[in-house]
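User: Fold this one for me? It's Enoyl reductase (ER) domain-containing protein.
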Amino acid sequence: MAKTTPNHTQAVSGWAALDSSGKITPYIFNRRENGVNDVTIKILYCGICHTDLHYAKNDWGITMYPVIPGHEITGIVVEVGSNVSNFKTGDKVGVGCMSASCLQCESCKNSEENYCDKVQFTYNGVFWDGSITYGGYSKMLVADYRFVVAVPDNLPMDRAAPLLCAGVTVFCPMKDNNLIGSPRQNIGVIGLGGLGHLAIKFAKTFGHHVTVISTSLSKEKEAKTKLGADDFIVSSNAQQMKSRNRTLDFILDTISANHSLGPYLELLKIKGTFVIVGAPDKPMDLPSFPLIFGKRTVKGSMIGSIKETQEMIDICGKYNIMCDIEIVTPDKINEAYERIEKNDIKYRFVIDIAGQSSKL
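Assistant: Here's what I get for Enoyl reductase (ER) domain-containing protein.
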């Protein structure tokens, strides 16, 4: 399988992992010329997702080296193809996790291309021309316009970048479970990280009562005073957990570490819904009794379609929802990876690719 095609003639500076050590180093590679359905984007910022670490170290055994991570990309359009009518040079745009899909299956036709069997990702995927995709840890990206979204003018590009993955990941379960425009409900968010803090912001914007569930008591103050959560439960405190049994309508689980769902399911009311968006690398314990005796539902969810991603970021523009970030320069990516592994970040690292002002 070719990593590039003869059409890949544009030399680009980027940052790649070359082997399973996961160390990110400067790397020069080629991107394709701008085609009729493409937009060329000068990348300004790229968020660091925990998925990037897994791919860099080949934790899932599917990495094609060299791998250039990055699927939380914001930048400026500098060239458009002849078939592109919804973008023009100078537009603020974003690219998330997807670069291509079959466009023909039921999922694609229903604007659910993120569930297409042939979906290809922004990096470590295979594009339509047979080339391997390279992500946003780079100066420039050529993307099919059907997988690009417009970024609202009022959103700063650095704080908007993580919305392309983390934001849509927590937005879609709320939309799917009718939490937008619905009467006030009691929402639980497990985990206060990159996903969790955005989930709180969305849920509060939608008018719901929000309870944060965390292993760390030290996070209670920031959850309530900084993010506006209404309640806080220390999950390791059995008494606290029991006192909140059957109080929540909906729980969003953002934890990527292995854990049992049983104690959390007991927090749900009868017919309550539990949605998993974290991705532990081992099977989670799911006892049957909390399901049977509560008529509860456990579901999974992943990112969102391009249509949903555009809807999400438009809502962020309308209500001024942004990710809380820490900016790093490309030479500090490895240090950022080390800190992510230690959970030493509030709440998302964003790489300043172009050295631009955060006011963009």
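One thing worth pointing out: The two ends are 39 Å apart (CA to CA).
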